[in-house]
Design a protein that fits this description.
Length: 291
């Protein structure tokens, strides 16, 4: 049957539209939110953790309405967008006494997953004030790690869900679009990596990367109930060379086209970046290409 719409990996046919119209007709007094939840239940459309994909479903229904395929009830209220009004992280003061010593003299290092803990404020503050990109609230699945030497933070890692489309990575993995949509959750994207400027310890950056990636999959499993098999990141080569990543065995996969995920012009509008990737298990391709 001919597809009327393709949205976030789901193909919608005329038969699907008929089901949606019938659902709306049978529940005339319900809100768009409740209708989307009902549709998710009817389709068993769920996230990997079992929760309904009702926000995605609302977007699909809105797209069908805009295309003239269905009629939706009037909007009852417009909820505040927390991302649009989110305040900058509160500044948390830290000891900036220079740490100039060897890796061996630094002592034991402790990795702490700090998302939804009292230490998250410090993490956000350090990124906001000491990373050139600042702090951006992640969306989707994400984890935050602070590395401590004693009581002092010496490294920060922010991880999130991987980009849905990334040409160099997709060609490297060799997966088709359907497999990508099915298994993209098994990839993690390193959105931020910071060693504060007052930490001057040779070889620390690659050492932390190696340890972080060895523990990443197990930490993801703890929070989201599934592992990750491959890690990716971008390196802005106008600012950095990505030396610590390469020293930690990350591989060059290619270069971005400089257009961003919301591009409509098909022309570069931002800095080109190197795409680097790291398999987290030996049989990563077998796992990612499994149907």
């Amino acid at each position: 049957m001919e597809a009327l719409l393709r949205y976030r990996g789901r193909t919608v046919t005329a038969a699907d539209v008929a089901v949606i119209k019938d659902l709306i007709a049978r529940h005339p007094g319900e809100s768009r939110r409740r209708l989307s939840a009902r549709l998710c239940e009817a389709w068993n459309w769920r996230q990997p953790n079992g929760a309904l994909r009702d926000m995605v479903c609302r977007g699909l229904m809105l797209a069908l309405w805009r295309a003239g395929h269905i009629e939706l009830p009037e909007i009852r209220k417009r909820p505040r967008n927390p991302l649009a009004t989110r305040a900058r992280p509160t500044t948390v003061e830290v000891d900036r006494t220079p740490l100039c010593l060897s890796l061996g003299d630094l002592g034991a290092l402790e990795f702490r997953q700090v998302r939804r803990t009292p230490e998250e404020g410090l993490f956000n503050s350090l990124l906001q004030h000491h990373h050139y990109l600042g702090y951006t609230q992640p969306v989707g699945e994400h984890l935050k790690f602070t590395v401590y030497a004693g009581t002092r933070p010496v490294g920060l890692f922010a991880w999130s869900s991987a980009a849905r489309h990334l040409g160099p990575r997709d060609r490297y993995l060799g997966w088709a679009s359907e497999l990508r949509r099915q298994n993209i959750r098994f990839l993690a994207y390193n959105t931020r990596y910071l060693i504060p400027g007052w930490v001057q310890v040779p070889h620390l950056a690659s050492h932390l990367l190696s340890r972080m990636t060895r523990m990443l999959s197990a930490e993801w499993q703890k929070v989201y109930g599934h592992p990750v098999h491959f890690a990716e990141t971008f390196v802005d080569t106008t600012r950095h060379r990505g030396t610590c990543y390469r020293a930690a065995n990350w591989q060059f996969l290619g270069r971005t086209q400089g257009r961003g995920k919301d591009d409509l012009t098909h022309r570069p509008n931002r800095t080109l970046k190197d795409v680097l990737g790291l398999p987290l298990v030996g049989d990563f391709r077998k796992r990612l290409l499994a149907g």
